[in-house]
Specification:
Helices cover 42% and strands 15% of the residues. It is an alpha/beta fold. It has a single domain, classed as Divalent-metal-dependent TIM barrel enzymes (TIM Barrel, Alpha-Beta Barrel). The protein has an 8-stranded parallel barrel with strand order 1-2-3-4-5-6-7-8, surrounded by 4 helices. The longest helix is centred in the last third of the chain and has 21 residues. It starts with a strand and ends with a helix.
């Protein structure tokens, strides 16, 4: 397996420092964000591209277009501007997240939104990474439903799934769909007192021996099923964001995952 790192893993580092940390960790693939931290609001795409080129970094994606499945209001304009930024900075994909506020979105609207996004993505040679969110309030919890919508919109390679180990566990979905997956987000939950339906982004830490999300099993199954892309760290917990040494914390998690995979494989 190979690792990637989402900037949210070390959000207090400026982009150049984040890229440098990734290279020291042996990682050359990253994700940048428009929230934590808001790189899109702070830097021009030209500056991002130049920094990535200088440090030998590949930008896998920009997180995230939300809510992609409500194609109304300012969303079309935001989608186009984000896609323009992605193309100009050298990113390969846009992460697309569904409405997550308890309101339902009809399946036909999901298909309509994917239809509307296709030309925007295709014209800029971008992939749309559709990320079902496993929260009970999410309007698109399951990957199977996302695949159905992608297929109805025309499965021409414009879209792929974002498999998130946290959201997969919350949704309770058995199917993994490794051959339809374009990228994997990994994070763990170690708090023993929170029920699965009550897990939130704030609980998401780096993967270690206390993980309750079965990350190792998910990773092994994805690899065994043919997924050959990177696994990108995406922790949201404040304790991770405030770490005095995010590089050491990430290295420790990487070492744990690799050792656990090797141990399980030997068994």
């Amino acid at each position: 397996m190979r690792f990637a790192i989402n900037h949210i893993s070390a959000p207090k580092l400026p982009l150049a420092g984040f890229f440098a940390m990734c290279r020291r960790l042996g990682v050359s693939e990253v994700e940048i964000r428009n929230d934590i931290p808001d790189v899109l609001g702070a830097m021009t795409p030209t500056a991002v591209r130049a920094e990535a080129a200088a440090q030998g970094i590949t930008i896998l994606s920009i997180n995230a277009l939300y809510p992609f499945n409500l194609w109304a209001g300012d969303l079309p304009d935001r989608a186009q501007r984000m896609a323009d930024y992605a193309a100009e900075c050298g990113a390969r994909a846009l992460v697309m997240c569904p409405l997550n506020d308890g309101n339902k979105v009809p399946h036909s609207e999901v298909v309509r939104a994917l239809d509307a996004m296709k030309d925007i993505l295709h014209e800029r040679n971008l992939t749309g990474l559709v990320e079902p969110l496993g929260f009970p309030v999410s309007s698109l919890r399951n990957k199977a439903e996302a695949i159905t919508a992608i297929t109805e919109a025309g499965a021409d390679g414009t879209y792929a799934l974002m498999h998130d180990t946290f959201h997969h566990h919350l949704a309770g979905e058995a199917g993994l769909f490794p051959n339809r997956t374009g990228l994997v987000h990994i994070s763990g939950v170690t708090d023993p007192g929170v029920e699965v339906d009550d897990m939130l982004d704030a609980h998401r830490v780096l993967v270690d021996g206390g993980d309750r999300l079965k990350n190792i099993s998910q990773i092994r199954a994805l690899l065994a099923g043919g997924y050959d892309g990177p696994f990108s760290f995406e922790p949201f917990a404040e304790e991770v964001h405030n770490s005095a040494n995010p590089e050491a914390a990430l290295r420790q998690s990487m070492d744990f995952i690799l050792a656990a995979l090797a141990e399980e494989g030997a068994a």
